[in-house]
Design brief:
The complex is a heterodimer. By secondary structure, chain A is an alpha/beta fold. Chain A has twelve helices and 14 strands. Chain A has a six-stranded mixed sheet with strand order 6-7-8-3-9-10, with helices on both faces. The N terminus and C terminus of chain A are likely disordered. The two termini of chain B are 30 Å apart. The chains are: A alpha/beta, B mainly alpha. The interface between A and B is large, with 73 and 53 residues.
Chain lengths: 327, 388
Amino acid sequence: MNAMALPGTLDELAAQSHWAVETHGLTKRFGANAAVNGVELLVPRGSAFGYLGPNGAGKTTLIRVLLGLTHADAGTMSLLGYQVPRHRDAALARIGAIVDEPRFHGHLTGRQNLRLLAAAREPAARERIGPLLERVGLAHRADDRVVTYSMGMRQRLGVAACLLGDPQLLILDEPMNGLDPAGIAGMRELILSLVAEGRTVVLSSHLLDEVERTCDAVAIVDRGSVLAQGPISEMLAGARTALQVECGDAGRARALLAGTTLGASIEVVPTPLGLEITLPGGTGRGVTAEINRILVSGGIPVYRLQPVQTSLETWFLQVTSRLGDPE
Amino acid sequence: MTVVPAGGVPAPDQPVPVASAGLARDRRGSPVPTLSMIATRFMELRRRRGLMIGVAVVNVGIPALFMGIRLLLHAIAPRTNPPAGNFVIFAVLGPGLLSTFGFIAAAVVGCTAGSRDLSEGMFRNLVVTGRSRLALYLARIPAALAIVVPLVATGYIIICAVSAFAAPTFIDDWNVNIPPGLSRAGFESWASEHAVPVICGLYHGRIPRDVECASPPRWSKSALAPGSSAPPRVEALAIVAARQNYARYAGIIRRPSASLMIRTGLWIELEAVVGVIVGLGLASLMGQRLIPVIVIMVLQLILTPVLTYVTIPHLQDLQRSLMGLAMAHLEPSGLPVVVGVPGVTGGVGGSGTAALLPESATQAAWVIVAWLAGWTILGAWRMMTRDA
């Protein structure tokens, strides 16, 4: 299909896609090292999506492949329903992105840098410069040279650059890097407002707490592969949970639990106050009651049972720590 | 961070449009850069203070300073300092200095335009706009030329203006102010009227004892007033001196002609254009500025002068593909040979071309075209295929 010949048809087809980002078997190699290894990724439109992974996991490389900054070695991908690289220009016209740290010409002012980028976009982009500088809180420094900006100001200028094209999809690579707590809160507020406007925001980060506060869904990536993805609530529901038990005679309590049918599916670790029991993902409240019953009927005094809610960070560590384990 | 609604951006809960009218008109995949892209790229280059100062100093500052000092010295002491302009000064500063160092300055501008987006991290920001990488590359060419061409023209106009308007009124090469444009008979007649200074200044032989050679008024703006009549023997000797020197007298050019200035100006601008294009292509290819600048300087200042005047067996065609040699062959005729300045050789059919490796003007023109096209293709190809 020719994008220039049938623009309406192409746009209509693209608009029918439910996914803002869709990849299948996407692979990018640097020599023998697969930085992106058969990635299957589905990012729903209108969501804030976290792309999580430790340093060196391949997060930035995936973003670079998606945006055409480097070519893929295998696999297919589409952005906002447009097949790329075939219709990359049409897709990128509707996308804003910060890749790696935001960098600009230091000898130009923030406004001049935005003018340079707006000139490469549609004519209306230039009219958005002023309002966007207001929006990201840089209006008062817009005519200062970027070399005098702090890292946080450059991040905000990067977000303004992303929004020049009034994008439907924003891809932000580590947008919280270098920000102070107030800056992080402001960035979070900005991202949430962008999602509220109906845009899709893909957020690559290793700041799990921030992602948990900002995103609806996540994908966990390590060593180039997506390990898990989905809505955060569903992911955490399937994660292992911990149960802190304050009780007497922890040694006998541990032996009692090990002798039951639960013993095979739980991990019991003694603590100064009693036991910490790790329950498998999806465990219901009934198991907690069953543990209590076993201990009490065994003559163990139970003073307190406290389920500990699994955080995204805990779950992330659980998922990534499985990497490299024998299957 | 302040979060306020932005103009042109939908308010919360309003759907983001699939394709705005602006996008429908947007020809983002086109390889043709927009005027706005060229203008902002020009702005980006113009705001580089160090670069602009350097290029302005080379192209305008040095000629202006040199000519200014000569004008000042002549104005202060016209009897001891020659007029600021003349043909030789024009040849040294214009085709000599401006073409050589103007080329290098132009190449530095090209190298900057071709590498700074990459080194300063803006390249990826530009690529993710979806704009054709070829258009991004091509936008740099007119932007860089818009910096270089006017500066070269300004410097050259200063040189031409001083060379033409502050040229000596009289031919003064022998410390004898001689009216220009005399015929042989007129020259001899003038010599007989100014026998003593002519014998003192021009005569190649033993000067008679009765001729007193006082210091002549050097660089005077007026012709020598006729002296007191000399003995017939001295006048005859002056006529002999005039005959001896007429050929040299007739060959002296006080100021460059308008035609020569125009042709030379176009040639110098062509050299600057080539400098920009080669610098841009090489820097884009290598992804940096420093090494390409060094390579171009070595090529222009060392290799070209050497390879232009020697003939290496079996490698003459390779030598003929040198841009500097081709430019030398395209140099306007009528310029003098300026020894030691690359590229200034006497022009097509001029006295200096005999020493050059032979090459026709057509061949030279094709070499220039090949350099322009080749480096543009290489630079654009690398920009289109480079990881951002």
